[in-house]
Amino acid sequence: MNRYSLRARLLFLASTLLAVGLVTNAFFVSSALSGYLMEQADSRLKVITQICARLPVAALETSQWSQFSNPVVFYVDDQGTVLKRIPPPEKLPPGGGPGLPALDAHAVDARKGDPFTVDSHNGSGRWRVAAVPYTSGTSAPADGAPQPDNVIVAASLSHVDDTVSEIRTISATVGSVLLCLLTSAGWLAVRSGLRPLTRIEETAAAIAHGDFSRRVPALAGPRTETGRLTTSLNGMLVQIETAFQAREEAEARMRRFVADASHEMRTPLVGIKGYTDLYRMGALPTRQNVDETMERIARESERLGRLVEDMLLLARLDESTYLARPGTAAPDQYPLELAPMDLRTLAVDALHDIHAMDPARSVTLTGPDAGKATSAPALADEARLRQVVSNLVGNAVNHTAPGSGIRVGVGSLDGHAVIEIEDTGPGLTADEQERVFERFYRADNSRSRTAGGGSGLGLAIVHALVSAHGGRIELRSEPAEGCCFRVLLPRLSIETHET
Q1: Helix 6-54 with 158-193: angle, nearest 10 deg
Q2: For residue 466, which of 441, 499, 437 has the smallest C-alpha distance?
Q3: Fewest beta carbons less than 10 Å away: which of 108, 212, 242, 357?
Q4: Is residue 444 within 8 Å of residue 402, measured between CB atoms?
């Protein structure tokens, strides 16, 4: 049966059960009817037998015998020899009458008048037979025949057999028609009931050919098995589509990352190679030329080293984030040297750094949202947070006009320790804000390095390091109104710190 479809198996099973039910019902009905008719025939036969046992033979020969369904009466002696037969042999019904066994006096006494069944002489029918002692007190028959000892009465069962046969024929006919009709109706019902599975099959085939947007239509109620299956499959398909989209986006980001990283690394490498080629060609005749060239090679090497370190840092942070996903093994967390600290220390150092990079700038120290500066205790890695603040300060200095103002905010807000850097530069559009934390992303969407420009990894490192601390970074910006980068870390309570 596994070779056939589910529709065919269900239809075959339903039809088989229906056929078994109809046959069983017809069997029990016909058996019950046969038993009932047999009981009626036995009742009549016993009455007729008792009458024949008490009436004189001559009375039976002259009576209107048709009212008793024309039974056949045999008068026999103690040896079972037939002395008289009513009606005579020439008037017996078709089939030659009943084929009686030897019924002597002992056999008649043993049967005690209970009816039994025998076949006709030619086997074409059945007869019901009863034998009792002949109890009539009349003298011997007038024709001089001997007085019978027993009387045997046989009644044909043709009416019983014909009735049961007709009932069986009707049951078979009606059952066959009913089986055909119900099988056809069952085929339509199974086809309709399995239609959702067909749609699921079509949806799966479409997805297999790459159409991940296909969904299984809701063809049944949400509380039915098919409805729940449809809901589960659609939820699974959403996850599959999301996973494939995420994979495609990840592959696109990886390709861009490789291209951007290659470009960023190629720039210092080309410079180093060019300086070394000049030296080999003898284009550096004096010691001063050699010293200047070596200094440039050192700067490019440092630039290349910083780029490699930034990429390695991001790779380690990515690995830690990936391993921390649900269902994976215990992650090998990025090692952070956590210790209690106050973010005000970083805010004060940020003021000095800004003054050192651009003494003409106006720098103010405030609290969050330009309020009053307050303490901001946190459990953090101070070295890594200094890297975060340094990148934000460098971003504000490099992307704003010289002498423009910068605000450093620090304090506590809604259970978080907060430090923020706000500038008065050109600001960012909504599209630029969505991508500002991407790796190698620059607002001008180019790889050309302008004066003071970075590799495009600074803000990506800031986002990764803040996330590694269990915090988050927020950006608030409008075109021509500057940017405000806010770092929020879980605030360290005094009780926790003392503990």
Answers
A1: 160
A2: 437
A3: 242
A4: no
pLDDT of residue 284: 81
Between CA 34 and CA 63 the distance in angstroms is 30
Q: Rounded to whole angstroms, how far apart are CA atoms 206 and 155? A: 76
pLDDT score for 339: 92
The string over 412-426, giving b where at least 16 C-beta atoms fall within 10 Å of a residue's C-beta and e elsewhere, is bbeebbbbbbbbbbb
| Dist. CA 429–CA 317, nearest whole Å | 28
Pairing of strands 406-413, 416-423: antiparallel
Cα–Cα distance list, 449 to 357, 398, 477 (Å): 19, 12, 24
Asked if residue 87 has a cis previous peptide bond (ω within 30° of 0), the answer is yes
In whole angstroms, give the CA distance from residue 35 to residue 125: 17
* Domain chopping of the chain, boundaries: 7-137+149-164, 241-323, 339-498
CATH annotation of 7-137+149-164: 3.30.450
Written out in words, the top-level CATH class of the domain with range 339-498 is: alpha beta
pLDDT in tens, 357-394: 888 888 999 999 888 889 999 999 999 999 999 999 98
Q: What are the φ and ψ backbone dihedral angles of 105, each rounded to 5 degrees?
A: -60, -40
Length of the chain: 499
Which amino acid appears at position 410 of this protein? V
Q: Provide the CA 298 distance to its chain's centre, in angstroms.
A: 62
Identify the CATH number of the domain defined by range 241-323.
1.10.287.130
Q: What is the pLDDT of residues 96-136, one digit of tens each?
A: 778 888 888 888 888 888 899 888 887 778 888 999 998 87
Name the DSSP class of 69: T
Other residues' Cβ atoms within 10 Å of the Cβ of residue 158:
16
Residues 6+ apart with CB under 8 A from 341: 377, 378, 379, 380, 382, 385
3-state DSSP call for residue 278? helix
Write out the two tokens for 480.
């021509």
Q: What is the pLDDT of residues 429-484, one digit of tens each?
A: 888 888 888 877 766 544 344 444 456 788 888 998 998 889 999 999 988 888 99
3-class secondary structure, 485 = strand
Report whether 300 contacts 271 (CB < 8 A).
yes
Instruction: Give the span between the Cα atoms of 245 and 253, in whole angstroms.
Output: 12
The pTM is what?
Answer: 0.50
